[in-house]
Amino acid sequence: MKKSLLIAALALSFIAEAQVQTPQASPPGSVSTTVGLTDVKIDYFRPRVKGRKIFTTDASALVPYGKIWRTGANNGSRISFSDDVKVEGVSVPKGEYLILTWPGATEWTVSLYKDVSLGGDLDSYDASKDAAKFKVKPEKLAEKVETMTFNIGDISDDSKTAKVQLAWENTSVKFSIAVDYDAKVMKSIEAATKVSPNNYFQAAVYYLENGKDLKQAHEWIKKAADANPSAFWVLHQKARIEKALGDKASATASANASLKAAKDANNRDYQVMNEELLKSLK
Fold it and tell me: What does the pLDDT read at residue 194?
C-alpha cells in the first residue's frame, strides 16, 4: 500500500513539474532608454493582427473606436519613469503607470493610470486614478505593422524631450515626454567639484552651454586650466567662456594657447576649432 502511494505521489509530482512550453500568442516586449538623466521603460504584451479588423468603427473589431483599450494584450502595457516628468504638458510623478487608450478615427485619448493592478480589468476603470489624461492625433502608416510595437524616440538634441510611439496595423500614435535634469546636474556639480578639481571643466562647460552664470563658469574653467595647463580642450572652452564674457583679449590668449597645445599634441580637430574661434575674435 505504501509503495502504491509513493508511486502515485511521484507521478503527481512529475505531472506538476512537467509542462509543455509553446510560444505565447502575444509575446512580451520591452523598450527602454534614457532621456536626459531619466530612465523611461515600457513593458507590454504584443498582439498580432492575424488578418483581423483592428481599429475601426465596426463593433466586431478587435479595438473598436471609442472603447477603452488596455493598449496591448494580457495585462496591458506599463510605462515607468525614474524621475518626475511631463507627458503632453501634464506633470507626472516618477513611478509606474498603465497605458490606457480610447482609440478614434481622428483623435485618441490616452491615460497614464496609477493603479497598475487594474491590468485588463477595464470594467473597474476609475477616472480618479488617472495620473494624466490627454488627446493625441493618430497617423496613417505607409507600411503595415503586424505585431504591436512601442518605440521611444525623437529624442531632442538637448535630451530634454522624447516621444513614445505605438505602432500597430496601419496606425501610429505618439505622445511627448519632457524631462528636467538641471537640478540633478547642479547637485552633481556641487558634489563632484568637492571631490576632484577635474570636474570643474565639465561644470564650466555645462554653465556655458546652458546660459548660466558665466563668471562662475570662468572661475571653474580657470581652476581646471591651472590643474592641467597643457589640456588644449580645457583652454579652448576657457576661450569660449571669455568670449561670451566679452573679454576678447583673454579669449584670444586662451585660444592661442589652446592652438599651440593642440599642435603639440597633433590634434587637428582642435587646431581647426581654435583657428575658427580666433577668426571670430578679430
Answer: 63
Give the three-state DSSP class for 186: helix
Nearest to 271 by CA among 225, 228, 233: 233
Q: What is the pTM of this model?
A: 0.68
Using alpha carbons only, what angle is made at residue 136 by residues 132 and 138, rounded to the nearest 5 degrees? Answer: 140
Return the C-alpha torsion angle 155, 28, 93, 88, nearest 10.
50
pLDDT band at 163 (very low <50, low <70, confident <90, very high): very high
User: What are the cell numbers at 136?
Assistant: 493625441
- Say which residues have a Cβ less than 8 Å from residue 273's Cβ, sequence separation at least 6: 236
- pLDDT attached to residue 16: 54
Cβ-contact 72, 63 below 8 angstroms: no
Residue-range domain boundaries for the chain: 23-178, 182-280
Asked which of 54-58, 96-100, 124-128 is least confident by mean pLDDT, the reply is 54-58
Rounded to whole angstroms, the Cα distance separating 206 from 194 reads 17
Mean pLDDT check: name the lowest of 184-198, 222-236, 242-256. 184-198
Q: 3-state SS string over 33-57?
A: EEECCEEEEEEEECCECCCCCCEEC
Q: Residue for cell digits 502608416? A: 141
Q: What number does CATH give the domain 182-280?
A: 1.25.40.10
- Percent of the chain's residues with pLDDT above 90: 70
Question: Is 214's pLDDT higher than 60?
Answer: yes
3-state SS of 116-179? HHHCCCHHHCCHHHEEEEEEECCEEEEEEEEEEEEEEECCCCCCCEEEEEEEEEEEEEEEEEEC
Provide CB contacts within 8 A for 203, sequence distance 6+. Answer: 189, 192, 193, 217, 220
Helices (H) and strands (E) in the chain, counts: 7, 12
